[in-house]
Specification:
Elements lengths: L4 E5 L7 H11 L5 E5 L2 H10 L6 E2 L2 E2 L3 H25 L4 E5 L6 E5 L8 E6 L1 H9 L3 E5 L1 E3 L5 E3 L2 H11 L4 E5 L6 E2 L2 E2 L2 E3 L3 H6 L5 H16 L4 E4 L11 E4 L7
Parallel strand pairs: 1-2, 1-11, 2-8, 5-8, 11-15, 14-16
Antiparallel strand pairs: 3-4, 6-7, 9-10, 12-13, 15-16
Length: about 250
Amino acid sequence: MLTVRVVKLGGNELDRADWLAACASALQAAGPVVVVHGGGKAVDALSRRLGLPVEKRDGLRVTTPEVAEVVELVLAGPANRAVVVALRRAGLDAVGLSGVDGGLLTARQLAGGFGQVGAITEVRASLLQSLLLAGLTPVVAPVAPDASGTPLNVNADDAAAAVAAALRAEELLFVSDVAGVAVGGVPQPSLAAGEIEALIDRGVATNGMAAKLRAAARALHTGARAVRIGDLDVLTSRTAGTRIFAATPQPA
């Protein structure tokens, strides 16, 4: 099996051409990599233009059928294309996919009144491995069908975690414009997965960061070997960002 890294690119940064170009340049030396991207900022903008509600709870978008159409249009369209174009300009042979393509992702609808929001139940890892072996860089938009074929909006952090687990990824990197996880204003070099719910309960990690931390813990518990959260530096430095550990580190 290939040694693979999974990189999740924050959707709020995708409209910054310089940031995306810097990501693409850094990924040149990353080895075999699967990229998963968000696109929340663009989804918000188009939803407002169409007069549709923008509502989020616990870091997840409440997705009516109309909003689900916007999510699929944006994520599988311009957001995915922007990432593919940036990677190809940097010399990577990128290919864009949504979770629907080739049966890449399958999801079930989440309970709790979120609407058409899904949790990944299956990843066709063999498809990603075939593309990687062919020298391609898959770029995945986190839209996945349920068993009936209805497309569901999947949180990009959760999708990246599921992909990393399915591939037994060497490392999962959550990349945005935040240098890492801060506690009391102090950036943390590492956190144990077991600490995450306490941080969320205390309000230290909220909204998007809470969702990211929970996704990191799930990835570690289901197959990913390592997880880090940070900014562009995590793509070029093995010590940058906040590393999430599956177990509480033993005291020295």
